Amino acid sequence: xxxxxxxxxxxxxxxxxxxxxxxxxxxxxxxxxxxxxxxxxxxxxxxxxxxxxxxxxxxxxxxxxxxxxxxxxxxxxxxxxxxxxxxxxxxxxxxxxxxxxxxxxxxxxxxxxxxxxxxxxxxxxxxxxxxxxxxxxxxxxxxxxxxxxxxxxxxxxxxxxxxxxxxxxxxxxxxxxxxxxxxxxxxxxxxxxxxxxxxxxxxxxxxxxxxxxxxxxxxxxxxxxxxxxxxxxxxxxxxxxxxxxxxxxxxxxxxxxxxxxxxxxxxxxxxxxxxxxxxxxxxxxxxxxxxxxxxxx
Length: 297
Description:
Helix 8 crosses helix 9 and helix 13 packs across helix 14 (265-283). The chain has helices spanning 8-22, 26-29, 35-56, 67-90, 93-100, 102-115, 121-138, 151-178, 180-194, 196-205, 210-232, 237-243, 246-258, 265-283, and strands spanning 3-6, 291-294. It is built from 14 helices and two strands. The chain is globular. The protein has one domain (3-294). By secondary structure, it is an all-alpha fold. It has a two-stranded antiparallel ribbon.
């Protein structure tokens, strides 16, 4: 059977690519579709894409191992995305991302006592560099009255951060034992069942958004979710947390390309710090062995 060796470096580069793609998600959120509806179509199309893939590889099953953990992960994922999408609608993308990315820091800190992971000092430095770069990128202090954040938007971004940290901690053991395809398919299926009514409403009320729904779900959720959880098996939570700081930095680039926004010099400095932090994380040796990504997944 063909086997693709997934080293920590390859895993890190793959996760960086996912983070760059996820930086474009706010472009799909600023519309008239409700936040819950957006999450519904996202998880539904993502689940369908992975179910098709799992069926093709003969892996279409909801595993008995970690079943309760998978259900909890699906619930946390649903709540996290709903809170985050609504925070983007109520406040600026910069502030929403700035607050939400407290979550990976919390997950990195908790991975030691809860998961027993050994976090090298270099990873903590990388995490600090990336987090500092994110603050410089979003520059919430520079927002004027036009971009003033609502208390509700900030609160929802904070809730999204808490839920993201919980999802990373809860999901790591399941991803390690079940592989990325099974993990992502299971959690997305749970979320799709929960949000079925909202999905039907979004598809009925906004048929003109079908292409965007498909991209958001099948590509940015199904495919990217599989890569995310497969990578999560290979590198520590702290490394994942650091690399994911590429997402808010890439969001600035996407906005420049598609929204005609011109980043300031400080913004580019922040992006440089985020990239530097991600590079440090990718180059940091880890104790966990490389995984092998089979064609059968």
